[in-house]
Amino acid sequence: MAEYKLKTPLTDEDIIQLKAGDKVYLSGVLYTARDAAHMRMVKALDEGKELPFDIKGQVIYYVGPSPARPGKPIGSAGPTTSYRMNPFAPRLISLGQKGMIGKGKMSDEVKQACIKYKACYFVSIGGAAAVVGSAVKEAEIIAYPELGPEAVRRLVVEGMPLFVCYDAHGNDLYETAKKEWANKYSLG
Amino acid sequence: MAEVRSVSVKDIEEAVYKLALEAAYHIPEDVLEAEKKAYEKEKSPVAKQVLETIFQNIEVSSKEEFPLCQDTGLAVIFLEVGQDVHFTDGYVVDAINKGVERAYKDGYLRKSTCHPLTRENYGNNLPTVVHTFVVPGNKVKIIFDAKGGGSESMSKVQMLKPADGRDGIIQTVVDWVIQAGPNPCPPVIVGVGIGGDFERAAVMAKHATLRHVGKPSDDPVLAEMEQEILEKVNNSGIGPAGLGGLTTCLGVHIEMEPCHIATLPLGINIACHVNRHKEIEL
What we know:
The structure holds two protein chains of two kinds.
Chain A: E1 3-7, H1 12-16, E2 23-32, H2 35-46, E3 59-61, H3 89-94, E4 99-102, H4 108-117, E5 120-123, H5 129-133, E6 136-143, E7 152-166, H6 173-181
Parallel strand pairs in A: 1-2, 2-3, 3-4, 4-5
Antiparallel strand pairs in A: 2-7, 5-7, 6-7
Chain B: E1 5-8, H1 9-25, H2 29-41, H3 45-64, E2 74-82, E3 85-88, H4 92-106, E4 129-135, E5 140-147, H5 149-152, E6 156-160, H6 165-180, E7 188-196, H7 198-208, H8 220-234, E8 249-259, E9 264-271, E10 277-281
Parallel strand pairs in B: 1-3, 2-4, 7-8
Antiparallel strand pairs in B: 2-5, 5-10, 6-9, 7-9
Family (chain B): Belongs to the class-I fumarase family.
EC number (chain B): 4.2.1.2
InterPro entries (chain B): Class-I_Fumarase/Tartrate_DH, Fe-S_hydro-lyase_TtdA-typ_cat
């Protein structure tokens, strides 16, 4: 289990070195989007319009933050459940998205897209939102403000701790970790 | 019969306001205790790291009044009203909604209610889901539960066959929680409702998540089932945040009621590791 410090935008080389279970401290610009924003982005693509940001090399954080207190860039901001983005993620990955941050399982189609286009699914700790959110240094709504917590935000993060869950080689941290620790509770 | 007592709904509004804020920032003591115990028992280094982050989060939230989780939940209230209570100064459900709306605004909590089809966010976290129970006496008990969407989405009601019995119930719960895996933010607390009818099973399951974590059922048969489910789920290896380990579940709580001879309703409601709830008696 290696540790890496990476900065967005991510390259193929950044991604290829990562293995499921590695820890990554991510810095740079991230974009936030949840179901409602993904639906709009895919609709925009269907209509031949542009996405609200250049997706090449970018990482999308699946988060709907709580409102910021005065003087803070953001409120609590932990990952939301990722499977809701299953219908959209492969298409965005094929356009150059290099990573997603969320929690919970995603589909086989997402895994296959990670292998085919060299992308990576990162997870962080759901519920630990005050701590995870403290990595966010700047936040600004750049699209769909009417979606409230689900609007697309441009975040600047510093050293956001993440685990590599699906790597570009077809490994799945949830599956390997579960297998490793199964049937040990009674021994513990 | 207790003496009839007047309770102003303004006091209900104020109580709900305070409970909502407290639930958002401060984890229930029993949940933290259960997590600390699990930490001592945990053998996976990654799981220990995850639990440490969870403890750190609890500290930061409490100190800086940052919500424990960005999903500050749908506001769910179990309202136990003594039959000798007379509410004054307005309608009690309006007062509850006012308390919730004010807390979510003043406390910088996320407003998460939306139109189910258009998905338009109402911006006030209303309406509150209120389950009302009339009980003896002249007191009012308010149990506030901030229920997040991630764990709630991993819940279900299943109408089993009567012949499925005890073992069928255990198997269904264990399979379901293991299948949910990392999605509901483990370590989880599993609420199970057995019997009643379709909707009673669900209400019991959610109510059961609010019991003191790990306190066994008073019914020895149910207590044994709780223990069996707990061990089987923890043997799955899913672990905290799904990253592997011995701590997938902190407690299984079962509630049971009689059912129709032709049915065996089963409700499963999962609470995440922050399991935010607070209560007060007026």
